[in-house]
Amino acid sequence: MPGVFTAGFFYSQFIYRPAYPEGSLEGQTVLITGANVGLGLEAARHAVRLGASRVIIGVRNVKAGEEAKQDIETSNNRPGVCEVWEVDLSSYSSVLAFGDRISKLPRLDSAILNAGLATQNFELAEGYERTITVNVIGTLLMGLLILPKLKATKAEYPETHPHLTFVVSEVHRLPDFEEWKQDNTLQILSDKDKAQMNIRYPLSKLLEVLVVLELAGRVRGSEVIVNMVNPGLCHSQLGREAGLIFGVMKLIMARSTEVGSRTLLAGILTGLESHGSYMSDGLVENTGLSTFVRSSDGVKARTKVWNEVTAILEGVRPGILQNI
Q1: What's the CA gap between 131 and 245, in Å, rounded?
Q2: Tally of domains in the chain
Q3: Pairing relation of β-strands 163-167 and 128-129?
Q4: Which residues form the signal peptide (predicted)?
Q5: For every residue of 46-93, which 3-state class applies, written as one string?
Q6: CATH number for position 91
Q7: Active-site residues: which are they?
Q8: Is residue 1 part of a domain?
Q9: Can you give the residue range of the structural domain that contains 305?
Q10: pTM of the model
Q11: What is the 8-class DSSP label of residue 42?
């Protein structure tokens, strides 16, 4: 895996420690998906510690979410701050209901879209391979649905700087992505006979990087700061379906969950300089994007994937692109 195992990777994993989150989220409402375990849980803990008035934990498993809420509030001695909201990114109807619920909030200052899936088991969800549905289609659907509330918060509270932060991964540098050159790329990736599930998670993260870059290019950073964060290899439950090799890698090289979660907070604590950017170790680091992403072919692939994904989303919620 030469695309990931660079000197910079080892420096990040074994030497560099992202800064401990400081600053104030007082009075703010923060959404974190996938916050019942792992990076999301620790990020929510930091958000509560930094004074957020309302922290919404978006989870598939409400019982686990309630346990996380109790843990976070007890550790910070701040009862009643967290709310557990159910959402399943593999279900369009679930994401739509969640987005409609967000639209009714008085304000939304920041969102960390952290929920994701890493699996080697092929399964369809909403007509597409499940990893693609969760990490790309469902995640972008969520982002587009909550964007109007982030914009409205900026309009009502001009001193705020709303953030829409996507949690991506340095493994986006691993896969070759020749499928972008073909018609119906997402359908091809959802063909069980052709799907290479051993690299599906890295490929899904490459697609996510592409659509986030395209989204950021269409959103004014002065309204909403759109960025993406790479937390590095961390101890979490993300790879519970990803196989033995990934598990061994984590055992040897992974950061602690808390240290990794610092990078998520960095995404919503940074300024306008991070708009449209890739952050690693809590710092803006666009050179961390793969050579492909930064190439002319990468730009073409970005447009191609964006058009395919948003065509799906327009079918799910007609007019959704007007949210941009």
Answers
A1: 19
A2: 1
A3: unpaired
A4: none
A5: HHHHCCECEEEEEECCHHHHHHHHHHHHHHHCCCCCEEEEECCCCCHH
A6: 3.40.50.720
A7: 201, 205
A8: no
A9: 20-315
A10: 0.92
A11: H
